[in-house]
Amino acid sequence: MAFADSCNFEKLNNNNYKQWKFNIKMQLLNLGLIEFVNKQEPVLNAEATKADKQNFELRKAKALSTICLSIDENLKSIVYNIDSPVAALQEIENVFEPRSRARIGALRTKFLNILFLPSDTMSSYIGKISQAAKDLENAGKVIPDDEIAYQMLANLPRSYDNLVMQLYQLDDVNFTSLNIQKSLLAEYDRVTVREKSEARPKEPAVFSIESAVSRKKNSTKEFKERRKCFFCGTVGHIRKNCWKFKNANKMPTHQQRKPPTFMQDELSNPAVFYASAYCTQSMDIEFVIDSAATEHFVNDINLFTNFQKLSSSASMAEGTTSILGKGDVSLEIMDNSGKVSLLLKNVLYAPQMMRNLISLRKFDLAHYSILVKNFKMIIRTPRNRLFLTVPLIDKFYVIKANVIKMQNDSAAYISDKDGIELWHARFGHLNMQGLKDFSKSNNVYGLENLKGNVDKCDTCCLTKSSRASFPNIDKIRTQHVLELVHMDIWGPAPVKSLGGAEYFYSIIDD
């Protein structure tokens, strides 16, 4: 009982054989009895004295009792009638590690399916492979050393792909499990040190970027007095607190109602726009930020705030793309810090383009800074303030924005001729006099003071044209039957005839 109390590890049961096997060997090693469980049991010399023989038998019995007393009561029947420590361990091994093809097959499957789990370290991963190879060896199947090396490289995370390809280039002499183990441990230590370094808190930035959210939360009197109302133009309050703005919206009439105003603080975002006009929004239009594009491109004419027709072409990577016009496109982007407004100038209209493109070169020319990191593109203003964060979607950096279309009193980008042609088409090709009457009477909000005239409208000419009549034939030109036959086939008919026919075939003799 005294020894049972000194056994400081779990006794052998049906679930802990591997751990027990290691513990019992360490226990025997600690007691100086490990020699009695080697494959060849020690033998005394013929010259040994009686005292040496008694000491030898005492130590052998102690080794056997150490093994037997570390076994659970339910399993002690395995070592009944055993009088040798070597025989006792061998009998236990035969029960828990039987040498059969079924066991070898199970251990081999386990060996091949060892994965590098997120919770693993490189040492534990290599240890699992080495232990599985050792188990196979104990079961009678020796795994070649190069197979162990291949298994170490087989199921690593993708971040190790470059190292794996380098190790595959080793010659047969150097491609050993020991060399592979050293390389993997060194790479794991290097990556771990780098990740710990990146996780350290960074130094405070020299320039602090004041976000729109923080400015809204700033409620000090000094800050409020510096703000300007964009409705009445008075310094000291903002539009939502402006009493003139509130009174103007209480009872909107036909004469008082004004178009909505869109704006942003120029100090917080240089790429802003201000427009006093009615607007419509196209929701979630995708724009790809392209580092190879020298200009902005869109493939939908309805996205333009204003538009000017062109007749030229631009050279693209896939060939020559027709450019039918250019204009401005106003975007409203939802970012983590709120809404961001962006005005794209001189955007080219190319209907054949598969995607809408925003030129990264244009940002660079405007002295914006761009940083690509962790599957995101971070764009900062020339004053080093955060402007926009663009995510990586399907190998492209994509902006999803609302496109704001405006019709205002300024037509700086559209000629008089283009303007009157545009409104002529918008009003269903209304006659010129009626269109000018609308413009002069101010009955239509947003309709500018139209000038000029439409010289020629292709649509009007086509819809008002009529076909010339066929000439009358006063005599039959043919001389006999079947000399001239007119034949035609029509179908398939949307509804079958009573006989089930779908086509009509006519034959008319002249």
UniProtKB/TrEMBL annotation:
GO terms for molecular function: nucleic acid binding; zinc ion binding. Residues 227-242 form the CCHC-type domain. PROSITE patterns: ZF_CCHC. Keywords: Metal-binding, Zinc, Zinc-finger. Transmembrane segments: none annotated. SMART domains: ZnF_C2HC. The keyword Zinc applies. Pfam families: gag_pre-integrs, Pol_BBD, Retrotran_gag_2. PANTHER family: PTHR47481, RETROTRANSPOSON COPIA-LIKE N-TERMINAL DOMAIN-CONTAINING PROTEIN. This is Retrovirus-related Pol polyprotein from transposon TNT 1-94. It comes from Araneus ventricosus. The gene is POLX_145.
